[in-house]
Amino acid sequence: MKTVIVVHGGAWAIPDMLAEASVAGVKTAARAGDAVLKNGGSAVDAVEKAVRYLEDDPAFDAGHGAVLNINGEVELDSIIMDGKTLATGAVASVRNIANPVSLARAVMQKTDHVMLTDRGASMFAERIGIPVADDLVTELERKDWELSNSYKDGVKTLFNTQWGHDTVGAVALDSLGNVACATSTGGIRNKMVGRVGDTPIIGSGGYADNRSGAVSCTGHGESILKVTLARLILFHMEQGKSATVAADASLQYMGERVKGCGGAIVVSSSGDWAANFTTERMAWASLKENVLHYGLNPKEDFTEMLK
């Protein structure tokens, strides 16, 4: 089976000052995930590696660089899912963890549960030796948070402004034909304490099933939750639609039904892939057979041949 990895850095109105860093970040993450797959690693290994790269990159709202809630604190959410067994791990509202995707994987592999939140997730992280990170807030985010406190518009408007920020994610198909997804986020700036969006919720922020494919979603979390976007896309694929048609139809439905914008990356169990969005921009990249595709603006698809 020819391997595929697709990554995204969030669907929102990415400002020009972050555009170059966002594209560079997703390309680097795609290469990192591809290297895992080329070495015979699993789809789960590949999506975790790619998302860790994005969490460590301060250009993105996940891990280092995460946005702050209304009290000026970081609260992080993540999910990872194995399409072979439907095993899933998720964490929500975790505060001092640099790589929540790896904590989510530990929940999947080392507990009988699917999701841990807040204090319980932190206690579990401490028990298994995941270090506490006190350096997740960037100077830029602290300044933006202080500035945005005077900005009283609704959350949906934020996705059409520089205040949006969003999620990161990856989907992969490995050489054995298994798919996986991972999604990670710091959520929405100035969110209420304890607010959880779509990201860690199975079927909304992500879903993976070898019988159809894998999806990672991004955008207005409350809208994505209402239409269970990841599972909706795979439902359309199960009806015979291609990855791109399924993603477009589902995003269009979300826009019509609940007036929500967003994006999704998709890979089918046969290697068909897509990166679609209805926001102003979404940084994304894919790697298949040494061809790197990437884009930022609507209908943009640049290619590079890797040696």
UniProtKB/TrEMBL annotation:
EC numbers listed for it are 3.4.19.5, 3.5.1.1
Q: What class of enzyme is it?
A: hydrolase
Q: Which Pfam families match?
A: Asparaginase_2
Q: Which UniProt keywords apply?
A: Autocatalytic cleavage, Hydrolase, Protease
According to its UniProt entry, the protein's GO biological process terms are: L-asparagine catabolic process via L-aspartate; proteolysis
Please list the residues that bind substrate: 195-198, 218-221
Q: Which chemical reaction does it catalyze?
A: Cleavage of a beta-linked Asp residue from the N-terminus of a polypeptide; L-asparagine + H2O = L-aspartate + NH4(+)
The residues annotated as site (Cleavage) are: 166-167
The record's SUPFAM superfamilies line, in alphabetical order, gives: N-terminal nucleophile aminohydrolases (Ntn hydrolases)
One Gene Ontology cellular component: cytoplasm
Task: List the Gene Ontology MF annotations in alphabetical order.
Answer: asparaginase activity; beta-aspartyl-peptidase activity
What residues form the catalytic site here? 167 (nucleophile)
Give the similarity note.
Belongs to the Ntn-hydrolase family.
Q: What is this protein called?
A: Isoaspartyl peptidase/L-asparaginase
